[in-house]
Amino acid sequence: MSGLWGDGGPYAAWVGFLRRWAALEPVDPGTLPAIVPEDFQGDTLARLTKHLTDALDARLNDWAERLLRAMAHSTDEFSVGRELAQARAGLNTVRALAGHPGLPPKVREELTGLVDRQIPELQAQLERNLDAEARRGADPRLLERRRRTLRENALTSVLAAPPPPLAPPSVPPSAGRRSPVSGPAAGGDAWAYDPAARPRRRIVPD
Q1: CA separation, residue 3 to residues 40, 114, 182 (Å)
Q2: To 10 degrees, the CA torsion angle through 40, 44, 50, 54?
Q3: DSSP letters along 28-78, please?
Q4: 31-45, 111-125, 164-178, range with the lowest pLDDT
């Protein structure tokens, strides 16, 4: 048996972190240990990936709700632009965790892709909300100013750069030691869990 169950090990550190991070508690991703796939049984790797996708999804939903509330209370386009700038910082926080250097490369790629594929849709939904307002009879001049603000402060601008880097994590002493493996890891890719296959929740309401 690996050191996974002794003091909790890297798996417990990550799961505990993700629960607190998803709940917006103050946590430091720089303290997370590296995940070495050889030190985990295959089903444990899939469970950890599920914890990651759930945490990312929770943060994105909370982020969207906060953005909509902030925009609804903004009194001018300058305030809206400021809220969008802060929202981009929030997206970068999510992207940074998805690309955490402590995760195996394939998982980083899958999670970063999962987050990045949602960002253009988030931008499009914000603009579709304006179309809905137009159908309800809102002043087209005000809507056009808002649409210009959305495009000048586009959320998609975060995609022009890779996820913000985090400090490389420490590798646990057991790194390089192959633990007994069972399940998917014995005959295939233990990280084959596809986060994109999860039911997608609508993040920004129309």
Answers
A1: 9, 31, 16
A2: -90
A3: -GGGPPPP-GGGS-HHHHHHHHHHHHHHHHHHHHHHHHHHHHHHHT--SHH
A4: 164-178
Q: What is the DSSP string of 122-167?
A: HHHHHHHHHHHHHHTT--HHHHHHHHHHHHHT-GGGGGGSPPPP-P
Say what angle helices 105-135 and 77-98 make with each other, to 10 degrees. Answer: 160
Identify the DSSP state of 175. T
What tokens does 11 get?
Answer: 């798996």
Positive/negative CA dihedral, 81, 89, 106, 65: negative
Question: Percentage of the chain surpassing pLDDT 90?
Answer: 66
Check residues 109 and 4 and name the one with the higher pLDDT: 109
Q: Residues 114, 195: contact at Cβ < 8 Å?
A: yes
Whether the CB-CB separation of 54 and 62 falls below 8 Å is answered with no
Burial of residue 84 (CB within 10 Å: 0-12, 13-18, 19+) is buried
Instruction: Count CB-CB contacts under 10 A for residue 177.
Output: 12
**For residue 27, which of 166, 206, 164, 186 has the smallest C-alpha distance?**
166
